[in-house]
Amino acid sequence: MAMGHGAFAFSLPLFTGRSLKAVMKSWGFSERKRRAAVRFGSGRDLKDDEPYERKGHTASTPLVRNVDLPTVDAVLKTKRRLMVLMSDTGGGHRASAIALSDALHALYPADELEIIIVDFFVSVAGPPLDTMPELYAYLAKHPNLWRLIWLAGQFPPTRWIFSMYVYWLSSAFFEHALDSFRPHLIVSVHPLCQSAPLEVLKRRGLMGVIPFLTVVTDLGSAANSWFHKNVDLCIVPSERVRRIGLAQGVHPDKLFLVGLPVRKAFWKRAAPKWFTRLSLGLPVFKKTRVILMVGGGDGVGNMESLATAVTQEIANHADRLPGVRLVVICGKNAKLEESMRCRTWSIPVEIHGFVTNMADYMCAADVIVTKAGPGTIAESWIRGLPVMLSSFLPGQEAGNVELVVKSGSGACCEQPKKLARVLRGWIGDDQALKAMSRASRAQGTRDATLIIARILGQYAFHRRSSLVLDRQNANPFVQPVLA
Question: Where is the Diacylglycerol glucosyltransferase N-terminal domain (predicted)?
Answer without folding.
Answer: 93-262
